[in-house]
Amino acid sequence: MRDLGIPCEALTSVLNDDEQTVIYNRLMCSPPDIKLLYVTPEKISASGRLASVFGSLHRRNFLTRFVIDEAHCVSQWGHDFRPDYTKLQSLRRDYAQPKVPIIALTATATPKIVVDTRNHLGITDSKLFISSFVRSNLTYEIMPKAAKTFVNVIQRMRQLYPGKAGIVYCLSRKECETVCTTLSKAGILAEVYHAGLPDKSRVQVQHSWLRNSINVICATIAFGMGIDKPDVRFVIHYSLPKSIEGYYQETGRAGRDGNPSYCLLLYSYNDAIRLRRLVEGDDCQAPASVRSMHLQNIYQVISYCENISVCRRKMLVEHFGEVYDAQMCLKSTTPCDICQRLKRNPGAVTLFDVSDEAVMILSAMTKMRNVTLRYLAELFRGQLNKKDAEQAARLGHTSLPFYGRGIGMSVEDSLRFLRKMVAEGYIEERLYKTKFESIVAYAELTLKSRQALVGGPKPKIYLHVAADKKRKSIASDLLARTSVSEAKALKEKHIVKYRDVFARCLQTLTEVVTQIAADSRLSGPYAIISQEGLEQVAALLPRTNSDLVQVDSMTSSKVERYGAQIMATLKPFWKEVDERDEAEMREQLEKLKDAQPAAPLPSLSSSVNTAPSSSAPSGKYAPRFGRAGSFKGRGSGRPKATPRVRKKPSGSSQGSSGGTRSKRARPSFKPPTRGRGAKVGRAAAPSLNPMMFPV
Q: Domains of the chain, with CATH numbers?
C-alpha cells in the first residue's frame, strides 16, 4: 500500500510500546494522517486502547469503513475458524450511529459459510458480490504418496520450473524440516516456515522468498495469509489438507500472474488418519458438533482424492456453489489429471455396480471383530500374504461369501471400494487408543448398515475401476459384472432425497417432450429421449449440456436441438431443490450451536460394552452429478459414540488401516502450455446457482 502512495500502518506484536504509541497519536490527529490501519481481530477484542481510539475516530466522523479480510474465519464451518473473529460483530453494534459500513472479504466461502458469516457479523442485509471460482491457468493433479514419490516430483519440478518459486505444504513442523532437507539435498534453495519459528525468523524467510533469494517455502498452513507473490509456479501438498476450502485457498497462491501453474497433492489415506487423530484426540476441546463438521471436511477431501472419474476442477468449483462444465477443462491447455487421462483414453474408466458385494461384506462383518479396512480389502481380493492367509483360514474368513469376489481389482480399487462404503455411511472406521498410546483404526458396522441387513434400504454402491499400466484394459472377470452408466447409477441415489420433486419433474418433462415430438412430427417422445433418460433427467436435474449429454439416449445433436427447452423445463425444479437445500443448510447451522462436549477417544481396554452407534458419516461425500454446490458432503456427520469392549483376540486382524503400499510413482504431468489470452486470477463470468447464496 505504501508503494501505491497510501499512508498506512499495522499494529502488530512486532512493535514495541513506543512504536505503537506513535501510531495511536497519529490516529488522534484531525484529520489523521493514516488512511489505512491493519489490525488483527485479536487486537480489536483485547485492546481497550484501540477501542478508545476507534471511538474517537467515529465521533469525529473519521472512521469510514471496516474491511474484514479472510472473513470465513468467523464461521465454525470455515476451514480456519478463529474465535476472535466472532467478536467482530461488536463493530456493527458499537459503531451504528452513524453506521460504519462493513465489507467482508473471502476467497473460500461455501454457501453455508456465507450465510453463517453474515449472521455472525450482523450484516444479513448486505449485498453479495461473487466472482468465479474457476482458476483456469492451474493444473490439478493427485498422486499416490509412496516412499520415492517426492524425490521424483522434485526432479520433475527442477526440469519444468528451474529456479522458480514454489510452496510445499506439510501437516507438521517436523514434516516441514524433513521436506526442506530433501529439497536442499536436491540442490533447491528452500527454507521452512511454521508457527514454531520466532517472528523475526518467519519475516526473514518470507522476505527472502519474495525477493527470490530462496525458491521454495516448506510450510504449514501458517504461511500464505496476506502473501501476494504473483509468480508462484507450483504448490505441492505433501500431506492431506484439512478441507476442500483450505486446499482451494492454498492452491490459489499459484499462478496469480495468469501464467500456467501446477498444483499437486500427494495422497495417502494414512494422512487422513493423522488428521482424524487431531480432531478426535484428547487435546481437541471443540464441541461434538464442531468435531463432526471437521470430520465431514476430511471425508470430503478423501472423496476428492479417491475420485478417478470426475473433473477435479468441476469438483472444486461446484463445492463453492458455481456451475461448471467439465468440457471446459477437457478442452483447455491446463486440464486436470482426470481430463488428461480422458483425452488419452476415453474408455479408461468403467463404472460397476458392486451393491451385492457391499451387502456380503456388511453381513460378514457381523461375525468379525477388530478388522481393518486393509484386511477386508485383502479378503475381498482373495489375495493375502502367507501369515494373514493362515490366520484368515483359521478364523473361517476364507469361507465368507465375499472372499475373492474382487479378484480382478487392484489393491487400490478394493481399498477405494471399502472407503466408499465408509463415505456412504455403511462402515465406520473408528479410532482406538492402545495401552501403548498408539492409535489403531477398526472397521465397524453403523446403524445405517445394521438397518440395511434387517430389511431396511439396501446399499447402492457403484465403483469406478480404471485400467492401469499393467492392465491396459479392464480385467475380463470385472467385465463379466454388470457395468452401468454414470447417469443411471446416480439416478438411484438422487431419487431418494426428494421423491416428490422427482415425480412432478418426470411428469412435466414427459408432457413437454411429448409436445416437442408432436410439433416436430416425430413418432413420439421416445424419438427424442428414452423413458430411462427422462427418469435420469428428473432425478439428476442436470445444469450443463455436458451433464445432459451423459443421460441415456441423449446425443450431442439432440442436446443442441432440444437442450434449451429441456433446461427451461428444469428451472423451477432447480429452484425448489435449492430452496430445500438452503433450509437444510440453515438447520445444520443451528445444530452447530450445540456446544455439548465430545467424548474422548475410546480405549481398547474400555470396560463399557455397548453396540456401535451410527457415528459414521450418513451423507454422501462423492460429487453429485450436474448440481451446483454439490460437493458439500451433506449428512448428520459423525457424533461420538460409547465404545464397545475392545480386547484384542489372538486371531484378530492387524495391519494398517490406511494408505496403500504403492510402488514408486512417477509424475504424469507435462509442462503446461501457456494459453492465448490468459487472464490473471479467476475467470470473469461465473455461472452461479443463485439459490446457493441466499439473500
A: 8-121 (3.40.50.300), 132-267 (3.40.50.300), 350-484 (1.10.10.10), 491-580 (1.10.150.80)
